[in-house]
Amino acid sequence: MKTQSKLKKGLKQIISFLFVAILICMMTGKTRAYVMPAEQLVDLMTRNSPKFKTLVINQSTHLITPEDLKVQMVLEEKIWLKSPGFHHLEMMDQTGDRDTGTNRFRVKRPSTDMTFRQIFMTGDKNTIMSLLSEMGINLNAVAFTRFDDVIAYRLGDEDARKPKLLIEKERFLPLLLNYRVWGDSGEKTVTVRFDDYRKEMEGWYPYEVAIFSGEDLEERYFVNDLMANIPVDPSFFERNEEHQPPPDEERLREVIDFLKKKYKPTDSSTNGN
Fold first, then answer.
1. Is the per-residue pLDDT at 78 higher than 50?
2. Confidence of residue 198 (pLDDT cuts 50, 70, 90)
3. CA distance 200 to 229
């Protein structure tokens, strides 16, 4: 009798132990959220992007001084985009009218990188995956994160200095893109923040974009108007400057002087620090 009692007691203890172990596993499984792989996230992001083949954007560009975050100059710009990877930018007169002849001017400036715009111009998942990889983003590192109290997926390493893409969990929209670019002064890190998404052609497009160089806010773009999928001759993106209307010299000189001061190389930048 005593032996049977001990066996029953031991069996109850084993069953209790197994029950607790199973319960712990179930609780742990519930709290551990599933994180989709990068390929699936990019696919969902692509589905929520507009299906643009060409895009013409009229925007106001606010040039910011990083020291005090004040707007030093507002430029009216027009951007033509064509998939895959074609672009053309012109600075306009303050009315934005490109038919005013001598009142229109055009000048190239250092901060005209268009790489980030390609993620809204390419409806192909594999192409975007390749683009993100070229930007230096580690697509094997995927995790949840928070960005301004918004739950997001992070593609890329956790290190703030490493390239990454944050995708909003709710709508699968890009929130922030961090990547490397190479220019005349060497390699630098660009951070792009996307805001004010609006519905465009069965997808979403950001009407406000902020550009950071390192940790410094340098530019803000505000979309005034956009036209999608209008015919654009590919040769338009290869026009020679000599065929452009003469610039407004006084306004052009003002812009160039400001940009020279704003982007003047410092000792630290020339040393690669």
1. yes
2. very high
3. 12
Residue identified by tokens 């001084």 is 65
Q: Could you give the CA distance from residue 177 to residue 196 in angstroms, rounded to a whole number?
A: 15
Looking at residue 175, its pLDDT comes to 98
Sign of CA dihedral 141, 206, 65, 218: positive
Instruction: Report residue 24's pLDDT band, with 50, 70 and 90 as the boundaries.
Output: low
Q: Which of 211, 220, 40 is nearest to 113 (CA)?
A: 211
Under the banding of pLDDT at 50, 70 and 90, the label for residue 76 is very high
Instruction: Write out pLDDT tens, residues 127-168.
Output: 999 999 999 999 999 999 999 999 999 999 999 889 999 999
- Domain 38-264: assigned CATH number: 2.50.20
C-alpha angle 158/190/75, rounded to 5°? 145
Burial class (CB within 10 angstroms; exposed 0-12, middle 13-18, buried 19+) of 116: buried
Instruction: Please list, in sequence order, all residues whose beta carbon lies within 8 angstroms of the beta carbon of residue 182, skipping any fewer than 6 positions away.
Output: none
Phi/psi at 175 (5° precision):
-105, -40
Q: How many CB atoms lie within 10 A of CB 44?
A: 15
Q: Residue 256: CB partners within 8 Å, gap ≥ 6? A: 107
The DSSP output letter for 260 is: H
Under the banding of pLDDT at 50, 70 and 90, the label for residue 113 is confident
Side chain identity, residue 45: M
User: Beta partners for 179?
Assistant: 190
Chain position carrying tokens 């580690």: 138
Residue 1 Cα to chain centre, angstroms: 75
Q: What is the DSSP letter of 71?
A: E
